[in-house]
Amino acid sequence: MSASKATNVDSCRDLSGRRLGTIKEAQRQAELLESAPALRAAAKAAEKAKLEALERQLGINAAESASTEAGPSSGSGSKRIAEVDLEELAKKKHKFEDSKFLEESREINDNVRSAVSAAMLLKKKKKAKADAANASSSKSVVAVDAAKKAEKDKVAMPPPAVSAAASAVPAA
What is the dihedral of CA 21, 25, 28, 34, to 10 degrees? Predict the structure, then answer.
């Protein structure tokens, strides 16, 4: 026996017949539901901080854009949100147009397909040759076996008995 006792009693049951592990899981889910609004608020705050950091990287100043709506700006070098129009950028579809890459991709795809088909054709040819060789060798093996059996039968059979009448025939 081991020196330490097991502490995992989740598979045990309480007096109502429910497993203790199930009860613990239900309690954890209830705690998670209670803390869900706080988690959502934290996620929103993190998203807002990320957006502000991105705006700083792009040179967009949210406070400046609010002042532009009230009146014209004093001409700093940063872009304004109104100039960028994020919704239009989000709607715009970006098409990947690298013809060299696409041509190389098609060429590689075609080469792979042709190599695979050539390998499959070669495999079929080898299999056909092997089948033909097996068929001819099996026929020759059958013929050799039949010849050996016939020879064995000849050796196993005693020579025909010479009858007295055949030996009494005068040699005229």
Answer: -140
